[in-house]
Amino acid sequence: MEAERNFSIEEELTKLPDSPGVYIMHDKNDVIIYIGKALSLRHRVRQYFQPSHDEGIKKAQMVRQIAYFEYIVTDSELEALILECNLIKEHRPKYNTMLRDDKTYPYIKVTLGEAYPRVLFSRQIKKDKSKYYGPFTSATAVKDTIDLIQKLYHLRTCNQKFPDNFGKNRPCLNYHMRQCQGVCTGQISQEEYAKSVQGAMDFLGGAYQPVLHMLEDKMNQAAQAMEFEKAAEYRDLLQSVRSCVQKQKMTDAGQTDDKDIVAIAQEGEDAVIQVFFIRGGKLIGRDHFFMNVRMEECPEEVVTRFIQQFYAGTPVIPKEIHLQQPLADQAIIEEWLSAKKGQKVYLRIPQKGMKNKLVDLACRNAKMVLQQDRERIKKEEGRTIGALKEIASLLQLEGISRMEAYDISNINGFQTVGSMIVFEKGRPLRSDYRKFKLKTVTGPDDYGAMREVLTRRFSHGLRERAELRERGEDDALGSFTRFPDVIMMDGGKGQVNICKEVLEELHLAIPVCGMVKDDHHRTRALYFENEEIPMDKSSAGFHLITRMQDEAHRFAIEYHRSLRGKSQTHSFLDDIEGIGPARRKALMKRYDSVDAMRQASLEELAQTPSMDLRAAQNLYDYLHDTNTVLQTQENAVQ
What is the number of other CB atoms lying within 10 angstroms of the CB of residue 414? Predict the structure, then answer.
């Protein structure tokens, strides 16, 4: 790190090569905050640090955080594009345009690399001899299709290796149910089985009519022969195939190639990209993707980033991708996609006809999803940010982001525990939740227990803060070093005063508010600065306070329950050296009480299954030295 700390941006800018490559920006904590590619590293990286160059507010914020940069030179812009995709996927930098979620799609896999292929469900595509169909957006639909193919073509589902395993095992249940041709019996030739596999592949490729005609003929023949059960089976299969056909709602009769339709809707720093998956001329599914973007970023740039990230992780690439507008790096992206696919891939911008209508349809869907998402976010902000503003207004505080709440749980003072829950921006931050097993308080003393929990929590935070400052890492704040904007105590005046005393002893100034409950243990009001503040029970702030109280109580109760469960299953045998779970179980099975175990001789104890002489001696000594303690633990052994 010493080299990075002595890094001179001005000096290093003069050393940049006039070559294609990838540049990587780091902040002072060595965190990668941005990754980009360039045809000329010298020209592109210098632009960030020129006062006259304007790439928007977000990029300006990023530049101010750059402590040093590094770069990797490549032989071509294509290599730089590939490297950039890989590095962004690995490091997910803060200031790169990113997909908000990574999705894996289901595929149907036909294992053509096997002598007797199978049809399988898969979420991964490997470079093997298998043929993959998809991607599909519904895993349920994929499984239903595979089940239908199994009923139609009776392909094997076992993972045995054939022909090596012919006759080595009895046929499975599928064979006896006439759902498998019985490859394991060796009675079906590879050529005959291959015809069934080809039929399944034709079906997956969209050739439904031959199957419909075949099933209809067989149903009629079975009915004429008065084989009504068999006719009913063919009728059900016929309905299943028709249902599968009907799911293909759109067909481009003039085209049979695979293509994706990609369209974007963007407002401010939010964008939604809609993708239609067309396979064999049929729309087999669609999906949408949320992107975090910069305000000044144009739709073409966002689509470019989407294509890089999406197709870097999607093994099946269509022959054509239809877009609304041309991309700045269109030629290099086509070259990259073609290299990944192994054949030419085209980025098209349709101007008329059905292709253009499909792009418009995808665009309308993207706008609709974006609008619905913004409405959902608005409602969620009302529940969270709006609720915080309401609480801050009631307490006359400037602003609230982080709130901590505490609760104590015990049963008549038994195994008292404390819980700390954290809400940030109105949402639970479960990674910062903490549990406390009381060390200094015994018996039903909730005030004493709360004092210990709060003292431990804030003392720990102060120690960590001091250690971080010594190391010069003030910004690296963890769950204990981050103090709340307000502390919410589960109770009224008593609990609030305990918290204030602890904070005063530690010289901390943090507002403390009590969450007051009524006689029915329901939230009623807030207690702040010696005053009870009523709340509108229909308000977002009231509901947020209720959620915090319930969450603190739930977290404490669950921890207490887990400790009780462990103590109830604990036996004195667990405390004896040499006795583990197996020996404990054998002893408890042989002796029905502590007294019976105590009356056994050393030799008898040693004869217990799995016991050895040393463990038996330890048990014998324990049994005869601690009679009083054992009497109280008898129930735990039984």
Answer: 13
Domain boundary among 75, 96, 117: 96
Among 431-435, 549-553, 629-633, the least confident range: 629-633
Distances (CA, A) of 350 to 307, 500, 580: 18, 68, 72
**Residue 454 belongs to domain spanning:** 388-566
Helix (H, G, I), strand (E, B) or coil at 51: coil
Q: Check whether residue 458 and residue 595 sit in a common domain.
A: no
How far is Cα 112 from Cα 155, in angstroms, rounded to an integer? 13
CATH number, residue 605: 1.10.150.20
Residues 509 and 456 occupy one common structural domain:
yes
Q: Which two tokens stand for residue 197?
A: 């596999």
Contact 583, 605 (CB under 8 A): no
CA distance 279 to 285: 9
Q: For 107-158, how does the pLDDT look when each residue is reduced to its tens digit (9 = 90+)?
A: 888 888 888 888 888 877 676 778 887 767 667 777 777 877 787 778 888 8
Average of per-residue pLDDT values in the chain: 79
Domain boundary among 548, 566, 584: 566
Strand order in the sheet with 68-73: 32-38, 21-26, 68-73
Q: What is the pLDDT of residues 409-461, one digit of tens each?
A: 765 445 678 888 999 888 888 888 888 888 787 666 788 888 999 999 999 98
Residue 146 and residue 129 share a domain: yes
| Model pTM score | 0.46
> What is the bridge-based pairing of β-strands 402-411 and 119-122?
unpaired
Question: What are 348's strand-pairing partners?
Answer: 322
Q: Are residues 426 and 512 in the same domain?
A: yes
Judged on CB neighbours under 10 Å (0-12, 13-18, 19+), 402 is: middle
Burial annotation 488-510 (CB, 10 A radius, 16+ → b, else e): bbbbbeebbebbbebbeeeeeee
Total number of domains constituting the chain:
5
pLDDT at 67: 86
**Alpha-carbon torsion 37, 26, 309, 378, what sign?**
negative
**Dist. CA 517–CA 146, nearest whole Å:** 56
How many alpha carbons lie under 13 Å from residue 350 in its C-beta half-sphere?
19
User: In a 10 Å sphere around its CB, with 0-12 CB exposed, 13-18 middle and 19+ buried, how is residue 137 labelled?
Assistant: middle
